[in-house]
Amino acid sequence: MGNDENPSTRPGDPGRFTRQKTILLKTKKRDGTWVGTPVSIVVDHDLAYVRTYDRSWKSKRLRNFPEVRLAPSTFRGKATGQELHARARLLHGHEAEKAARLLVRKYPVLHGFLVPLSHKVMRTKTLHYELSGFAL
After folding, report:
1. Which of 5, 6, 8, 15 has the fewest CB atoms nearer than 10 Å to its CB?
2. Is the Cβ–Cβ distance between 40 and 18 less than 8 Å?
3. pLDDT tens-digit readout, 78-97
4. Could you give all domains of the chain from N- to C-terminal order, each with its CATH number?
């Protein structure tokens, strides 16, 4: 179990990621293999939120397969705890704005300034995903 996991939560509860800064998010390729990427996460009740940009391979894989696996990890993506399974859903409108606000609140410099700036420089759209249906 990683240092930032909350051991008092149920095994399939996303609350175990509340204090976690980075998770390893695994998305499924067409050939069935899983690709892991470290991402920032924020938890709100029984849902979790992550963001990426529209031209990333991760967003393309999520379009085809909404099933994801996630585990607490280091900043570089080395898993430090038990993996959970969940489903990702692309957010739009007010839901996406809410996810963005939650990420900015938890990571004011990274998601309040650096990520939006990098997406603007790359001329790409920011996508927000809701993670739900957590299970071991």
Report:
1. 8
2. no
3. 999 999 999 999 999 999 99
4. 14-135 (2.30.110.10)
